[in-house]
Amino acid sequence: MKSDSNEDEKIEGRLQQATLDLLSGSDIQFRRETRLDIALVKNLPIALIFLPAADIPTFVGEGRVDLGITGRDQVGEHDAALAEGEESGVAEVLDLGFGGCKLQVQVPEKGDIREAKQLVGKNVVTSFTALSTQFFAGLEGVTERGGSLKTKIKYVGGSVEAACALGVADGIVDLVESGETMKAAGLKAIDTVVQSTAVLIKSKNTKNELVDLIASRIRGVIDAQKYVLCQYNIPRAQLVAATKITPGKRAPTVTALEEAEWVAISAMVEKKKIATVMDELTTVGATDILVLKIENTRSPSS
Ligand SMILES: Nc1ncnc2c1ncn2[C@@H]1O[C@H](COP(=O)(O)OP(=O)(O)OP(=O)(O)O)[C@@H](O)[C@H]1O
Ligand SMILES: O=P(O)(O)OC[C@H]1O[C@H](OP(=O)(O)OP(=O)(O)O)[C@H](O)[C@@H]1O
Fold it and tell me: For this protein, what is any one GO molecular function term (predicted)?
């Protein structure tokens, strides 16, 4: 989303489907023509641009694009590549929770290397040269003979896992999600450079007032995914106990029932805690417990 020409930004590849779902949940409507990397949004004066994940921090950091969705690993790589004293133009707005993976140091499973320090002075292949250089610089020290060893970091754009078997590298630094690729290539992880999830980022220099509106819509969808709405009936005498179990985000909604000694309660509950909450509610006498999906939510912090 650009201030003048109203461009917004998005990502393809691994994060694409979750990002499209997020935009749809935020009611950002667009139609992307085949092979076009730009799409005008129908119901807001912005445009979406589809760019490789690795390029997004650059466009956002330069202020050419107002908002972006990419991996935290890519933001880290962008920032690590900045010249000394140069300030990043990228600010993280929100952790989006999906696209979880780790950037890990990997070596042949059958080899002698057991810790990252043993790769100092050797050949390392990666698509994340700046983060890897930074990581190994932190391990490099003065050798026993008084010299200093530099790890040789080489860039490859894909299939990084092949580098050790092909004799190009002693170790690699690559993303691991399920671990299947690493295992299939006969590699093992010995250290983690960065833990990553997808993030919403913005340009530090943006003046576009739509940035806050869009960020707030996206935050609403992410919050909604974390919570469910729990409704139940409970004897009024148990109201205090029930409120402790389901305090809600601010406070639970309590509604009187036609039956004098009973109330109905409705409260947002963290999705991951809902099973325990239902168990506890049953123990204090709640009945007719319903758990409802929340499509979207907005609160002052959103
Ligand atoms: N298994 C995974 N492998 C690689 N990246 C992953 C994985 N899981 C999550 N990610 C995240 O997805 C981000 C982008 O991945 P990907 O390389 O697919 O994007 P892209 O460059 O936009 O797409 P493409 O390479 O298809 O053009 C990574 O930087 C990382 O944050
Ligand atoms: O732990 P896993 O679930 O197996 O995922 C990790 C793999 O996925 C990525 O590669 P990608 O498939 O994006 O293609 P690439 O090798 O060309 O980068 C990454 O570079 C690893 O190779």
Answer: ATP binding
Ligand 2 contact, 159 CB (< 6 A): yes
Q: Is the pLDDT of residue 299 over 80?
A: no
Contact 246, 267 (CB under 8 A): yes
Measured distance CA(39)–CA(36) in Å, rounded: 7
Q: Which two tokens stand for residue 186?
A: 């006969």
Tell me, rounded to whole angstroms, the distance of Cα 240 from its chain centroid: 37
Instruction: Domain 7-99+197-208: give its CATH architecture.
Output: 3-Layer(aba) Sandwich (3.40)
pLDDT digits (tens, 9 = 90+) for 177-206: 999 999 999 999 999 999 999 999 999 989
CATH architecture of 101-195: 3-Layer(aba) Sandwich (3.40)
pLDDT band at 295 (very low <50, low <70, confident <90, very high): confident
Distance 257 CA to ligand 1 centre (A): 52
Domain ranges within the chain, ordered by starting residue: 7-99+197-208, 101-195, 227-293
What ipTM, to 2 d.p.?
A: 0.95
Ligand 2 probe mutation, 11, 12, 175, most atoms within 8 A of CB: 175
15: Cα separation from own chain's centroid: 9
Residue 30 CB neighbour total at 10 angstroms: 19
